[in-house]
Amino acid sequence: MSRIKSGANGSLAPHRFPEDFVWGVAAAAPQIEGAAAADGKGESIWDRFALTPGKVYQGHTLAVACDHYHRYREDFALMRELGVKHYRLSVAWPRIFPDGDGALNQAGLDYYRRLLGSLEANGITPWVTLFHWDLPQCLEERGGWRTRIVVDAFARYADTVVRALPAVKHWITLNEISCFTEKAYGGGNKAPGLNEGAAVVNQTCHHALLCHGHGVRAVREHGAPDARVGLTDGPSVVIPVTETATDIAAAKQVFSEENIRVLDPLYRGSYAESYLRTAGAAQPQVAKDDFKLICQPTDFIGLNIYNGTFVRAGAEGRPEKLDLPANYPRADSPWLALTPQALYWGPRMVAELYGVKSIYITENGCGYDEEPVVDGQCLDLHRREYLRSYLTELRRAIHDGVPVKGYLLWSFLDNFEWQDGYRRRFGLCHVDFETQQRTPKLSAQWYASVMRENRIL
Fold first, then answer.
1. Which domains, ranges and CATH numbers included, belong to the chain?
2. Is 176 a catalytic residue?
3. DSSP state at residue 60
4. Could you report the per-residue pLDDT of 253-266, keeping only the tens digit for each?
């Protein structure tokens, strides 16, 4: 097991990031595009879920969202004005194959070719995610992530998209496996909103890992010679209460236990014995050569990190997870406790436990409900403080030798925030969902300065 050495980048000037550090923003197709049935697009599970009474705040839907489908040129021009050089986006699977694995919708591919051309014209590098939760509804009705039907369908989809977009040099296979498996099929609040039990959840996760493998294979076989590919994971981050050997060891143990289902197959080529013992009869069914596909070498891992859980060494050395006080500071998203150290310990744990040499923060940000535009300004000082405190911890990680190569802020625009609809705003740019007016917030101007200066201001 590798160990990060303190001061590995000790020559790094205070508040400054490495010269080749990647700065950018992120978004996802179902949350911003709208045009939910335009130009042959099929229905996604989130289109269906949002139309189900009681599932999404006040019945908000994806029908219009930020209308990015029609306004992407305007949005990319705004990115250019703010100095954005890298943009993580996703392709909507139902725009390419409306039925998941049936006839190809050429209009969908043509749309993304136009979109990428506009990015190039604005000097912005795309980071393309193949799957960001919008499974075609037709596939869900045939079993979805519970069956290998989705694996075969994704393999064809990935091959098609990678072949069609040869200029893309940065690919992400899937976004946050735990969210579209455990929180979607295990009683959570993500589409399709089922409660299938541990055996089904574990199998959906295994099928997702296989799809990741096909994404890697597709990039290696059909992508540009210098194309890079990795998975974006949303790990459960653990923060030691004190930075002492005992609390760090306790935190590392908890981190391993809570993230082992995804990270072990990726980097060790098998499920850990401890995971299989815990799963018991609910452990996933594995076919011959599954792990050969799953654990193909990747070029980086993306981490989506928003918060963390505090852990200390308890009685007899057993790790103890601590509950946060009721009045602990949070964003308006009730799950988003303000724990900046998560952006230090998350990447560090992944690097030390799995020897990963290239890490990108592919999402980090905060959601608030009321952010009015007054006299043309949105003074979101709470977001600016959140970002500054988190980036300070990320810079500390880099200083200590953690191989973090870039940071893509979530999100560029206020958008459809899944079950929270349009009330919860994560954007650097305010969106008036009635007029579609974009207004860069104070945090956007601050972050533009950070990107330009390559340091925390």
1. 22-453 (3.20.20.80)
2. yes
3. -
4. 999 999 999 999 99
